[in-house]
Amino acid sequence: MTTDTSAVQHATPASGAVSLRVLVYSSNAATRAAVTAALGERLSPELPLLEHVEIATPAAALAELDTGTVDLAILDGEATPMGGLGLAKQMEDELDSVPPTIVLTARRDDAWLAKWSGADAVAALPVDPFELGATAIDLLSRPSGSPAPGA
């Protein structure tokens, strides 16, 4: 289910947000559902509620990201026709402002590609709710502009 962004009350965590917008990109509806189920409505009592924006195509993802209202992007590395690694690289190369980004990969050996793509973190496919939640909390809890560990 894609969210109608016309009625969104959006702010950043530091400003006492009403919600955090999480873009979930995958060509696979089951993967999008697994991500949104893993994250739930709230990751932590210290963070605002989550608003999931599910996107199935690279063009729609880039258009949504270009609005500057996305707080976290979770990209499926196995999506077609463009995987999350390629989309993360395109985001880094083309967008003025890029939110913290997690790429989901089926192979741990692809972590180096995620670093090359500009993604801030990697999580496993199939989705591990504990790993994905902890990774998202880490990225969303960092002060704006803070580098990822090891960056």
UniProtKB/TrEMBL annotation:
SUPFAM superfamilies on file: CheY-like (SSF52172)
Family matches, as InterPro entries: CheY-like_superfamily (IPR011006), Sig_transdc_resp-reg_receiver (IPR001789)
Domain Response regulatory: 21-140
Modified residues (4-aspartylphosphate): D76
Alphabetically ordered keywords of this record: Phosphoprotein
Coiled-coil intervals: none
Entry's Gene Ontology BP terms: phosphorelay signal transduction system
Protein name as annotated: Response regulatory domain-containing protein
Organism, as annotated: Rhodococcus rhodnii LMG 5362
